[in-house]
């Protein structure tokens, strides 16, 4: 079942001097694992921002779950309910504990405090950090921080998980562990996982790889198992 | 400020002070002593006393105009001390025609004088027998001796001023005008006129205080705005993360304004405590005797009100700017 559709998406910067996305057409199935690869400046992060409703196209349409995002006035509710972001540098709030960081997306959810705690602890346990739930991010290793960021991205049960170079700042072994965690929780909640990466080995783990260069899709293929 | 100054200018008992028109600072033009009895016999006058003022240079190494070089000595009958507001004397009051003196508390503290010490006035030794305090700094910075004795040693048989106490509910202005009509070349000052002069002084002090406060508020506001802008600037990426996980612009605006409010309330409390500490330390170490510190609830309410208003104004701009930040822009910030 189709979850995401991009139709003739154009995005330019610097008053048209730079074309980040040039007439992109794309369809992504619900529950799939997709990797987006390409060199620096190819437009992959801009594409991810479009999919995450963080940016809007100059022309064309981004349709997610049947909703054309260009028709929405305020996309913050959409982001809170449908999207989970994992950044390269985790971007945790330094003065909040692991549990408080994971609970941030639940702040306006209407859930009781008890339910918020229960749900946060569920995902903290899923990423293997239950014993460190009271600690501040500066007491954690890089891999642990990224696991907290994954728990935060999933705590709202989003339909799409977007990960921008989630292993880019980690060593190979820790990076592999993070991907395992990400895959495990993605399967658990049945979300669609889209990863932007430079690393071809990471890209191969996905069911499908989209290769992008100069703002255009140059290859789109399914990886053999 | 006003409360402090009013306490400082504590008035004496006499409602009218008569001086020679040429009398500048009480130490030049004199009044004939016969006027004392004549004024006493006027209608609605209950008590009269003559006062002689002389200036004794006590420190020749300083310029003669320096307050530290001068000692102001008054001659007044000991039974009339109530007319200048001296009600309590620590020790005893001088005997008439004796070489005894009482000294104001401020002058004692400034010159390290205590009961039993000696003062030299016009070449004569005077024993300090008492220390008085009226609460008015200019009065407590003087020395009082017997009028007869001071007239005797200065070879003066007139007085510098005449203090007039009127009966209850008497019209002081009318009495004052009668005195001025009766004698040539004299001037009178009623307690009402003194009060009006005091009001002017308070007005000037209040204006100065307001100007200083205004300057402090402007400097403080710039500081708050700068601090908040920097605080928001440093949290740009954090704001980007919050937006990417679905926080609305309004929620970010409220969060930053809320933080500003907490910061300003805390700074208001700390500032008030610090202000009290500085004022107390200042009075204790810099010797402003007779200057009573008065803390009124209005002062603190005003200070807090201004702090919170300045804080909110200072916080609105950076909060608005942060709330309008595009999430992609904020996330790119390093």
Please describe the structure with a list of short key phrases separated by commas or semicolons.
heterodimer, A: 225 residues, alpha/beta, Rossmann fold, four-stranded antiparallel sheet, 10 strands, 32% helix, B: 334 residues, alpha+beta, ten-stranded mixed sheet, elongated, disordered N terminus
How would you sum up this structure, described in words?
The complex is a heterodimer of chains A (225) and B (334). By secondary structure, chain A is an alpha/beta fold. Chain A has seven helices and ten strands. Chain A has a single domain, classed as Rossmann fold (3-Layer(aba) Sandwich), CATH 3.40.50.300. Chain A has helices at 44-51, 76-82, 98-103, 113-126, 142-154, 172-189, 200-204; strands at 2-13, 18-29, 33-37, 59-64, 67-68, 83-86, 160-164, 192-197, 208-213, 216-222. Helices cover 32% and strands 29% of the residues of chain A. Chain B has 334 residues and is of the alpha+beta class. Chain B has helices at residues 2-8, 34-40, 105-111, 147-154, 172-182, 191-234, 236-244, 249-285, 297-323, 327-332, and strands at residues 16-20, 45-57, 70-75, 89-91, 100-104, 118-121, 124-132, 142-145, 161-166, 186-190. In chain B, strands 1, 2, 3, 4, 5, 6, 7, 8, 9 and 10 form a ten-stranded mixed beta sheet that branches. Chain B contains ten helices and ten strands. Chains A and B meet through helix 2 and strand 6 of A and helix 7 and helix 10 of B.
Q: State the separation between the terminal residues of chain A, measured CA to CA.
A: 22 Å
How much beta of chain A, percentage-wise?
25-35%
Biggest sheet descriptor of chain A: 6 strands, mixed
The oligomeric state is heterodimer
As a whole number of angstroms, the C-alpha radius of gyration of chain A is: 17 Å
Reported for the largest beta sheet of chain B, the result is: 10 strands, mixed
* Uncertain segments of chain B: 1-11
Task: Provide the helix percentage of chain B.
Answer: 40-55%
Question: Helix- and strand-based class of chain B?
Answer: alpha+beta
Helix count from the secondary structure assignment of chain B: 10
What is CATH's topology name of chain A?
A: Rossmann fold
Total strands of chain B: the figure is 10
Spell out the helices and strands of chain B N to C: HEHEEEEHEEEHEHEHHHHH
Strand content of chain B: 15-25%
